[in-house]
Specification:
4-stranded antiparallel sheet; 2 domains; 10-stranded mixed sheet; about 230 residues; Chondroitinase Ac, Chain A, domain 3; about 55% strand; single chain; mainly beta
């Protein structure tokens, strides 16, 4: 398929009124000090940035619910992660979408590549119904929404047997597992097929696996399961 590339010049902007869809081998390049807006979500990177396909950005009016907490009724979802982004993220909303949250209590939420919601305190423009945050460190994410600062989507897992950590993520070769208890590791692909399995795991060799997204389940002796979304580059 022929490659499609849209370049945005310095101090320019470009808008899509509906879903943005990039097919395989296509991309959009955003120059520094330029921006792209898709149905109310604006990306203004601090340096030249490329969004590669295949990828689709959709907007949903179905709020995200985590435990007893809920987001506003505006959620942007990407079919593939937006990786290593640095710059401003603008999130526009309607007052009818706030789900009884006061505008002054809104925080911006992004879903990172580990499947964890991260909330940041944005700059609020209540006149124009806009939340803005400048990510000065690289971040990768797959969804964007907003919630009440006292009822965020961030839920810290409680592990009765303590601490579990998996790194690096994304990875290119080995995935290291740190825990104070023995863990059985099972790695699945997105189709639910078991790819790897090992007992008393401290590391997984994934160097020969195709690039993509995987799901890692770690199970301890009490059958408590910790689940991680793994990116293999």
């Amino acid at each position: 398929m022929r490659k499609l590339q849209l370049a945005f010049l310095l101090a320019s902007s470009f808008s899509f009124s509906q879903t943005l869809t990039l097919s395989e081998n296509s991309s959009i390049s955003i120059a520094s000090n330029s921006s792209i807006s898709v149905d109310g979500l604006e990306l203004a990177p601090s340096e030249a940035y490329t969004i590669s396909g295949p990828n689709t950005l959709d907007r949903s009016n179905v709020p995200v619910v985590v435990g007893d907490n809920t987001s506003v009724s505006r959620v942007y979802e990407l079919s593939a992660e937006l990786s290593d982004y640095k710059g401003i993220l603008n999130f526009k909303y309607l007052e009818s979408e706030l789900n009884f949250t006061a505008e002054g209590d809104l925080v911006l939420e992004v879903l990172d590549t580990n499947g964890v919601w991260i909330n940041v305190e944005p700059v609020l423009d209540a006149v124009n119904n806009n939340l803005s945050y400048d990510f000065t460190e690289l971040i990768s994410f797959t969804s964007v929404t907003a919630s009440d600062v006292s009822a965020t989507l961030t839920v810290k897992p409680v592990l009765l047997d303590g601490y579990v950590r998996v790194y690096p993520n994304p990875t290119t070769d080995f995935l290291h597992i740190v825990s104070n208890t023995a863990q059985k590791a099972t790695l699945f692909n997105t189709a639910g097929q078991k790819i790897l399995e090992t007992n008393n795991a401290t590391a997984l060799d994934v160097i020969d696996l195709p690039s993509g997204v995987y799901l890692l389940n770690l199970t301890n002796s009490q059958n408590q399961i910790s689940t991680f979304k793994i990116i293999k580059n």
